[in-house]
Amino acid sequence: MQKNTDPKLSELILFFGEHGKTIKSGFLKSQDKAGTRNIYGEEQMALDKWADDVLINGLRKTRLVRYIATEEQPGIIEIDNPKNQFGVVIDPLDGSSLIDVNLAVGTIIGIYPGNVLNKGENMIAALYILYGPLTTLTLSTGNGVCDFVMDEKGEFNLTAQDIKIPDAKIYAPGALRRDYLPAHAKFIADLENDGYKLRFSGSFVADMHQILHKGGVFTYPGFKGKEKGKLRLLFEANPIGKIISDAGGAISNGKTNILAIQPRAIDDITPIYAGGKKEIRLIEKYMS
Ligand code: AFP
To answer: What CATH superfamily is the domain 7-160?
Structure first.
């Protein structure tokens, strides 16, 4: 609000803060598998589906958006008689395979003025809620990246603003080393020779929160047998890409800025390199 955000957008961001609180309270409910698979063939946790329902039902009830796409749904949902034209892309629980071992997981959200099958650079806001020892909300509306921490009353208090990614030697490399493609192998070898320290948890949102605050680079590359990578363009790459770019970093598929890519379908996947500009320049040099 201090940054003169459109009040309708503020209301939507507050909706996600409120519902993040509900999702946080759900971790005591169930750590079970749902017995079903999502559109990527991945096993769904009961909490994945529950968090998805919480957000979709809340958005249906409030009619704050027109379009909803989530990682757990096969198609775009259009709300009847919406109050606003916003479109939202949601990963309800990123890193959910870590729920049963109590590592940090999160909800990732991107907000568009309308259609969600849109370039990341057209997002008007992106945020994620990280459920770790603390519950935090990290937000960018393009006017500086802010962190909020949830207090004992369940309210989010501003703890940092205009966050900028520092320069540091941390790397979070996804995929198996034996499957690395040549340019990626060279990139990783360079980082290791330069003394980069490995930090990879299996939760993109948690790993990126570390990179945002401590610096370095996250990568889930294309690899042998899966040259297009694993992570989702709409639900993971673009919202986090906006936040890291607004914090002075960058996101690339190794060749080009991911935020400039026009998605073809909601389940598009992409290789990801996200973090400091220096590291992104290096992989783009090796891949060109
Ligand atoms: P889940 O949400 O299904 O746990 O997937 C998490 C994720 O998409 C991303 O958050 C991680 O960086 C990546 O997968 C981890 O993948 P690996 O298990 O192949 O390391």
So the answer is: Fructose-1,6-Bisphosphatase, subunit A, domain 1 (3.30.540.10)
- Token look-up 């060749």 returns 255
- The domains of the chain are located at 7-160, 170-287
pTM of model > 0.70:
yes
Pocket of ligand 1 (CB under 6 A): 42, 94-97, 174, 202-204, 220, 231
**What is the Cα gyration radius of the chain?**
18
As a whole number of angstroms, the distance between CA 71 and CA 110 comes to: 12
Pocket residue to mutate for ligand 1, from 220, 226, 269, most atoms within 8 A of Cβ: 220
Distance CA(25)–CA(27), nearest Å, equals: 6
- Counting ligand 1 atoms within 8 A of each CB, the residue from 42, 100, 203 with the most, and so the one to mutate, is 203
Q: Which residue shows structure tokens 């958005």?
A: 59
Cα–Cα distance measured from residue 126 to residue 183, given in angstroms and rounded to the nearest whole number:
31
**Residue 37 CA, ligand 1 centroid: distance in Å:** 14
Q: Write the residue with the smallest CA distance to atom 7 of ligand 1.
A: 95
In Å, the largest CA–CA distance within the chain is: 57
Q: How far is the CA of 254 from the centre of ligand 1 (A)?
A: 19
- Taking only the tens place, the pLDDT of each residue in 54-87 is 999 999 999 999 999 999 999 999 999 999 999 9
SS3 279: helix
Give the pLDDT mean for 35-42. 68
